Amino acid sequence: MANFDSKSHRGNYNNRNTHRQAGGNHYRSTNRRHETPQVQVEVGQRFPLTIKRMGINGEGIGYYKRMAVFVPGALTDEEVVAEVTSVATRYLRAKVHRIRKTSPHRVEPRDSYADQVGGFELEHLDYPAQLRFKRDVVAQALERYQPEGYRHYDLRPTLGMDDPYAYRNKAQFQVRRNAEGQVEAGLYAERSHDLVDLPTCSVQMPVTMHVMRAVVGMLQDLDMPIYDEEQGSGIVKTLVVRAAAHTDDVQLVFITNSPKLPHKHDLLTRIAAELPEVTSVMQNVNPGKTSLVWGDDTRHLAGAEAITEKIDGLAFKLSARAFLQLNPYQMEVLYAEAKKALNLQPGENVVDAYSGIGTIGLSLANVAEEVRGMEVIPEAVADSNENAAANGITNAHYELGTAEELLPKWVMAGFHPDAIVVDPPRTGLDATLIETILAVRPTKLVYVSCNPSTLAKDLVELAHDYHVDYIQSVDMMPQTARCEAVVKLSRRS
Which residues pair with 281 in a beta bridge? Predict the structure, then answer.
């Protein structure tokens, strides 16, 4: 992972890092069929549009005089009146002015603000259609990059949830004062820094929203200095509430503009009295205007310094900045699929690359001869080794560094992995790591992906030496366009 909370993103609710695909990237995938025309279009112009398909960010795609038009909120086969919101050289962006023909798969979103902030891109699409869309996103990415043999890959139906709501274990909301002086907590509107207050949120675990709204009320009552982005003044920037689904632990983190936290004693007293479910209170200092949510300085305020989550029978310590999948229920499905794809046998050595707090690697330790993992954040490595010790696991070891640095060193020292599992951030695998994997040539390779585009790109290199046995998509984030996938690869003879 690029940083310890590297799979979070300030501006939208999908909580995986790096950038959402721009409309132009969609256009490249269709560019051979639709050469760029010269079209005179103005912002505000309206025209009828038939939606031909959905793009990788969940928006509808149609064509106006052969120019691609990206329309958030529109669904395949709908006929809409589109209103242009921006004009680029090779594509247009538009919004739905009116729907003339409605898709049978359109449903009413539970969240009234679903069309304002990121992370609810598909809440107007029924859930079976969401699952089909996510498998199609993988197919679109493969078509774009065309790794060897991609037309014959086994793309399995997406594994979804029985109830695709109330699953998010972490709420990370910006805090600001509105024009009337009221404290608000929520997310930025798409492509802006205008805060949308979120008093409710259907995809959050209820306890996270209960704690969030209670703390917002306390900040208001105590007249706490709230961060002003334009002035660079004030203190409380962001509230983070994370709940452990399989224990009673809840952690609250105040991300602040300075180490000072006025009214700290009164605030902590009220939290203890009114929110007994909160077992850990921390402060993270992140001064100044920055695109990063988290700073490097994390301080203990009250309760425990970490919370504990249980996964597949193992206990995992979660410090404030530790990355954990946002959907604890589907996380077990995802990791079970990774274990199934790896099919580890007794006596085999496995490397857990991009290991985080050791969730995947430690779940393999009961079968493996030895598990080795690596991370680039010291706290993550410490958590991984502590988690191994706490669970009585003696054949797993985690080191600080990148896979491309450590893997050759381990091989030179006589450790040869039979299997490697990679779970990279949205940017995909480092090019040097791909070279290293191809040089080490483990018999088994499993790729856990959170970005079909970078997965497909990485498979271009990997598929020369590895056969793609299947791709199993898993819906970790219902109501969003995000898709995770487990890829089983086996070394070609």
Answer: 252, 302
Q: What is the pLDDT of residues 36-67, one digit of tens each?
A: 567 789 999 999 999 999 999 999 999 999 99
Give CA–CA dist 252/216, Å, rounded.
12
Question: Strand 155-159's sheet: what is its strand order?
Answer: 155-159, 466-474, 484-491, 444-449, 419-422, 349-353, 370-375, 396-400
Catalytic residue selected from 278, 450, 481, 485? 450
Q: Spell out the long-range contacts of 40-45 with Cβ–Cβ below 8 A and sequence spacing 24 or more.
A: 41/67, 41/84, 41/87, 41/92, 42/84, 42/87, 43/84, 43/85, 43/86, 43/87, 44/83, 44/84, 45/83, 45/84
Confidence of residue 19 (pLDDT cuts 50, 70, 90): very low
CB atoms under 10 Å from CB of 192, counted, come to 11
Residue 450 annotated to the active site: yes
3-state secondary structure of 411: helix
Q: Pick the more confident residue, 486 or 356.
A: 486
User: Which three-class secondary structure state does DSSP give residue 463?
Assistant: helix
- State the amino acid at position 187 in one-letter form: L
Q: Span 187-209, mean pLDDT? A: 93
Give the amino acid at 321: R
For residues 183 and 177, the answer to whether their CB atoms sit within 8 Å is yes
Provide the terminal-to-terminal Cα distance of the chain, rounded to the nearest Å.
31
Locus of tokens 């299997």 = 419
Measured between alpha carbons, how far is 156 from 116 in angstroms, rounded to an integer?
32
* Of 111, 115, 9, the residue nearest 60 (C-alpha): 115
Q: Which two tokens stand for residue 367?
A: 């079968």
**Beta carbons within 10 angstroms of residue 261's beta carbon:** 19
pLDDT band, very low/low/confident/very high, at 23 (cuts 50, 70, 90): very low
Q: Please tell me the predicted confidence (pLDDT) of residue 493.
A: 83
pLDDT of res. 37: 60
Q: How confident is the model at residue 374 (pLDDT cuts 50, 70, 90)?
A: very high
Entry pTM: 0.88
- Is-contact 174 185, C-beta < 8 A? yes
